[in-house]
Amino acid sequence: MGRAHGHKTRDKNKASLPQVPKNMKSDGIDVEFNRELADHDDLEAMARSKAADQRAKGRQKR
Fold first, then answer.
1. What span, in angstroms and rounded, lies between the C-alpha atoms of 54 and 38?
2. Distance, CA of 14 to CA of 7 (rounded, Å)
3. Of the residues 25, 38, 40, 50, which has the maximum number of CB atoms within 10 A of its CB?
4. What pLDDT shows up at residue 18?
5. CA 9 → CA 1, 49, 56, distances in Å?
6. Taking the mean position of all CA atoms in its chain, how far away is CA 6?
7. Sites in the chain below the pLDDT cut of 70
8. Is 9 exposed, middle or buried (0-12, 13-18, 19+ CB in 10 A)?
């Protein structure tokens, strides 16, 4: 009996685990964004996202 014989039962669980958690999977539907139809909350979220991206880029350069 070789060394791999003892490891077979340990590795059986890996095949049944999903690669991506269900809560991180998308439904595959792309949503198009239109600036003319955006409300105040959408524009505020975009501004916050842009500011966060700028802060993240600043931290990477250090």
1. 22
2. 12
3. 38
4. 64
5. 15, 46, 44
6. 36
7. 1-18, 61-62
8. exposed
Amino acid at position 4, single letter: A
The sign of the torsion formed by the CA atoms of 22, 27, 30, 33 equals: negative
Amino acid at 46: M
DSSP state of 2: -
Q: Which of 40, 42, 23, 41 is nearest to 32 (CA)?
A: 42
- Which amino acid type is present at position 2? G
Place of tokens 């539907």: 29
Dist. CA 2–CA 33, nearest whole Å: 59
3-state secondary structure of 19: coil
Q: Which two tokens stand for residue 20?
A: 């991506």
